[in-house]
Design a protein that fits this description.
Elements: H1 2-13, H2 21-25, E1 27-28, E2 33-36, E3 48-49, E4 54-55, E5 60-66, E6 71-73, E7 75-79, E8 85-91, E9 103-105, E10 116-119, E11 126-127, E12 134-136, E13 138-140, E14 145-152, E15 160-164, E16 176-180, E17 185-188, E18 194-202, E19 210-215, E20 219-222, E21 226-234, E22 239-249, E23 261-264, E24 272-273, H3 279-283, E25 291-295, H4 298-303, E26 314-315, E27 320-328, E28 335-345, E29 356-360, E30 367-369, H5 371-380, E31 388-393, H6 396-401, E32 410-412, E33 415-424, E34 431-442, H7 470-474
């Protein structure tokens, strides 16, 4: 009867509180929990309203679950001692504005009836102090979310087990933290009323939890996959438990930078690219289960949004685009990105300055020249030398057909016209040609110059015309072939 009187007073008083604080204290769980307790002075931030009664909880713990398969949702709160627990359950409620709970029990337990919760046989949806502690299950479907608030009505310290009837129905991603190898995760169990923290670790190898820290460490940094438990202890003897499920995933890398891709616009080739040509370079020897996708922007590659589909038949927009590639491990948590360029342009051939003179250094009427090393960069004029090949020919017909390329180095013996062909490595039908004149110039001879004099008669300025010596230096050599400079 004492319990009924207290609750009645609370209804009349109707204590206001901030609903939003519930969102901050929800503890995500996805499996049955043993040895739970709440701080003996953890009041509820809101009045807990149900269809049959209201309560301003004084020792509450709030839990959140997510559903991934249809289930008749049941659970039991199982005290260690003969301690009175109450609860309320909300389905798909806004934690900022919970409203009226879908289920609730405020039973004053008789001896042997301290367990309380939802079961498959109860028919009532809510019970006051007069009841057996059991109310009806809730039918849930994938996507539903559940909030359970547990209130230890009794002031007697206690721990309890929270056991679910169908744990396979719960989505454990809400309690799992996915991170990448090489990262460090800080686990935070801070409670302003705590006077000690005991941290335990389960490596999931079957040995269960072992203690790793005992002291005033509200946060720890971890780098290994496993379950971590913080037992938060209080001066009055109570203890809270916080669970953390940390999963480290492998960090993919870009094994080799993706190659720029080019298709030559020869009037017949469509600008359709197979971006997956870069798969092998990006993956290298990494796990074949790593997924590779291609994207139109760095942001989309970073988020994994809007992958290009199909990636092996991508129509270019314009003549050039930057494409981003993303490689990720199977969960998509860890990834790496890079970019490359695709181009769809016609081949061009830019003529060198013509005529181009080659000096007959040996004076024997012939000189060799490597046409590729001398002229390729000029003729390509910015085109990628990995995507185009330059060949040199003695006549325009061979340049057009690509036949009979001149050997390198090439021996020049006089004046000759050279015909250059620029051909796309991806499509031999895509090419351009140009021509230029090579002239073998004789080795210049510097004949003796004569001294130049001016008489200082008071009227001359002392300014000399050094080119007066040009004819002397050239002798009989062709002035069109040589330039004389004075230093």
């Amino acid at each position: 009867m004492k319990k009924l009187i207290l609750l009645f007073v609370l209804i009349i008083i109707s204590i206001p509180s901030s609903q939003a604080q519930v969102c901050d204290i929800l503890i995500p769980i996805c499996t049955s929990q043993d040895g739970l307790n709440n701080n003996a002075i953890d009041p509820s931030p809101i009045t807990i309203n149900t269809s049959c009664q209201a309560l301003q909880g004084t020792r509450t713990a709030w839990y959140r679950l997510a559903i991934i398969q249809a289930t008749n949702f049941t659970f039991q709160i199982e005290p260690t001692g003969n301690v009175d627990y109450d609860f309320a359950v909300y389905v798909n409620a806004d934690c900022n504005n919970l409203g009226v709970a879908d289920r609730g029990s405020f039973d004053a337990p008789a001896p042997g009836e301290y367990n309380t919760g939802l079961n498959l046989t109860a028919t009532d949806l809510c019970e006051t102090a007069v009841g057996d502690g059991q109310v009806q299950f809730i039918s849930l479907v994938p996507g539903d979310e559940v909030i359970i608030v547990v209130d230890r009505f009794s002031a007697t310290p206690d721990t309890f087990d929270l056991t679910f009837g169908d744990p396979d129905a719960f989505d454990c991603s809400i309690v799992q933290t996915d991170v990448c190898d090489g990262d460090t995760v800080m686990l935070d169990a801070t409670d302003p009323m705590a006077n000690n923290y005991i941290w335990e670790y389960d490596d999931l190898m079957g040995g269960g939890f072992v203690q790793i820290f005992n002291g005033n460490f509200p946060t720890i940094n971890v780098t290994q996959t496993g379950n971590y438990k913080a037992r938060i202890q209080f001066a009055g003897g109570g203890e809270n438990v916080r669970l953390f499920n940390i999963v480290f995933h492998p960090q993919p890398i870009i094994a080799s930078p993706p190659l720029d891709l080019s298709i030559c616009d020869d009037g017949t080739n469509p600008g359709i690219f197979d971006l997956t040509q870069n798969d092998d370079d990006v993956r290298g020897g990494q796990d074949p289960l790593y997924n590779i996708t291609y994207h139109n922007s760095q942001l989309e590659a970073s988020t994994g949004a809007n992958p290009i589909v199909p990636a092996n038949a991508y129509p270019i927009v314009g003549s050039s685009e930057i494409i981003w590639v993303r490689i990720e491990e199977p969960t998509g948590t860890c990834f790496a990105i890079d970019s490359f360029e695709i181009t769809y342009t016609a081949a061009t051939a830019t003529a060198p300055a013509s005529p181009h003179y080659v000096c007959d250094l040996g004076g024997n009427g012939q000189e060799s020249i490597n046409l590729n090393t001398t002229f390729d960069a000029i003729i390509l004029n910015g085109q990628n030398p990995l995507q185009y090949t330059v060949t040199y020919h003695s006549n325009p017909a061979d340049a057009i057909s690509g036949n009979n390329p001149l050997p390198q180095p090439y021996l020049i013996t006089g004046s000759v016209f050279i015909f250059a062909r620029v051909e796309s490595n991806a499509a031999s039908s895509c090419f351009a040609t140009t021509q230029f004149n090579l002239i073998l110039a004789p080795q210049p001879i510097a004949n003796p110059a004569v001294d130049l004099y001016q008489c200082d008669d008071g009227s001359t300025a002392g300014v000399f015309d050094l080119t007066d010596n040009d004819a002397n230096i050239l002798g009989g050599q062709d002035p069109a072939l040589f330039t004389i400079k004075y230093y």
